[in-house]
Amino acid sequence: MKLRQWQAECIDLALTRYQRGYNHFLALATPGAGKTMMASELSDQLLKRKLVDLVICFSPSSIVAKDFSESLHLRTQERFDGLIGAKGRSLTYQSLQYLDVNFWQLFKRYRVFVIFDEIHHCAGSNIDNANAWGEQIILNIKDKAKFSLALTGTPWRSDSAPIVLSNYMHPSNKISCDYVYGLTEAITDDVCRVPQIIAIDNNNISVTDDEETKTFNSFKCLLAQSVIPYQDIIENEKVMDYIITSAQKKLNKIRAVNSDAAGLIVASSVEHARQIATLMTNNFNEEPVVVTYRENEPTGIIQKFRHSKSKWIISVGMISEGTNIPRLQVCCHLTNIKTEMHFRQILGRILRITDAKNQEAILYMPAEPKLLEYAYRVKHDVPFEADVVKFEKMNSSDNDNVEDKELSVVNFDKKKLVRPSVEMGFGSLDSFIDVIEQPDFFEANEVVEEHFLTSSYEKVVNIYGRFQQESIALGLSELR
């Protein structure tokens, strides 16, 4: 297997540090750079040099855990199913809380190499400030694994908590990585595509309530006055129709060259995903694949889509970090999660270089201020002058037809927009779960907005998860 230059460099450095007595290595590589392959090659070398006996990998979702297991098998020609004769196991972080004493005894009896994929999910510099996953790592792995490798493409957390097993520099408080391979290097090396981010705006917005009609000339102005929540923008039928129509046209052009190119739409809730699917069926005669945490076999749906020629997939919390579908080239950001980590991870789904002739990567999103801030930071990572961020007005038209202008008006009727009670309080449990369970398998640090839910999120998921393990797809069936 021919390694990319950064992968070979990272492996050599990790082996050198391990041999010098360090037992932990943190590698930062931009989403889509090939962290799984690098970690698999490092595992193979450690096994062949007889420096470790077993390899155990933890990932944020069952689809990524399965990918890691397959990658480890292909590289080492060993099994990683946890059965007799296997060289290890690939598990989800969710499983950490359910592993029994027999599992943890492996660390006393064998020299274990542990891989932590997307380590930023696990927080804590000590037991007192750790989240549930970080606590298990500190208690059972930190001083017991022979070696460990932490991988991340976004080395920060939305709650600013310290990432487990990590060191931070003073006084900047920036994380200290043992190896860094950013988007700049990945684009230079033709490892990742150059992204293009299209920000959709509108200068003809009206909001109607019982007393008056207010007008706004941009989504920024609309949101600045807190007249309408962002959720209503991404659920507005005209906004959805315009963004998806633009993405559909672009994907059709790409598929004229790359016949299996595909598009991803990231929705905010299961109901939102169904709304988008209906819109696509009615307007474009498309039958998109829909994958959410409510499906019986979401991993199987993603795997089938990965190897098919289906055109569109709509996801709610299932396709973000680590999910490898290289044929994705167009993405619509229609989720209400507005953290930079989530934005970068979604963008990373369309950046993997393939052998196809066309290597465009386009993300469409509303021109929301936070998202624009993240987009411009991505632009700064591109190592040459390029139109990474572009604006597109919904009311742009080739003519001055009055009918076209009317179609471009985005109206929000506050009399009809009745938000769920969760906006002000907990409301019903169903509404609460729909709002907070957005990230990949309910990662506990990316919430819709920064309000009281931030501090209570993990507690609620942990409590609810005990009673609804299978229905919310914690990915633990492999442990039974």
Write structural notes for this entry.
The chain has 480 residues and is an alpha/beta fold. It contains 17 helices and 18 strands. The protein has helices at residues 5-19, 35-48, 62-76, 101-104, 106-109, 132-140, 183-188, 219-224, 230-235, 237-255, 270-284, 298-306, 340-348, 369-381, 402-408, 429-436, 453-467, and strands at 24-29, 54-59, 88-92, 112-116, 147-152, 167-168, 175-176, 179-181, 195-201, 205-208, 213-216, 262-266, 289-292, 312-316, 328-333, 361-366, 389-393, 410-413. The strands form four sheets. The chain has a seven-stranded parallel β-sheet, sandwiched between helices. The relative contact order is 0.14. Mean pLDDT is 84; it is low at 397-405 and 420-480.
The low-confidence parts are 397-405, 420-480
Beta strand count: 18
Strand order, sheet with most strands: 13-14-12-15-16-9-17
Q: What average pLDDT do the residues reach? A: 84
Task: Report on the biggest sheet.
Answer: 7 strands, parallel
Terminal CA distance reads: 35 Å
Structural class category? alpha/beta
Count up the helices: 17
Percent of residues in beta strands: 15-25%
Helix content: 25-40%
Overall 3D form: globular
Using only C-alpha atoms, the radius of gyration works out to 23 Å
Task: Sum this structure up briefly.
Helix content is 36%, strand content 18%.
Write the layout of secondary structure elements.
Layout: H1 5-19, E1 24-29, H2 35-48, E2 54-59, H3 62-76, E3 88-92, H4 101-104, H5 106-109, E4 112-116, H6 132-140, E5 147-152, E6 167-168, E7 175-176, E8 179-181, H7 183-188, E9 195-201, E10 205-208, E11 213-216, H8 219-224, H9 230-235, H10 237-255, E12 262-266, H11 270-284, E13 289-292, H12 298-306, E14 312-316, E15 328-333, H13 340-348, E16 361-366, H14 369-381, E17 389-393, H15 402-408, E18 410-413, H16 429-436, H17 453-467
Parallel strand pairs: 1-5, 1-8, 2-3, 2-4, 4-5, 9-16, 9-17, 10-18, 12-14, 12-15, 13-14, 15-16
Antiparallel strand pairs: 6-7, 10-11
Helix pairs in contact: 1-2, 2-3, 10-11
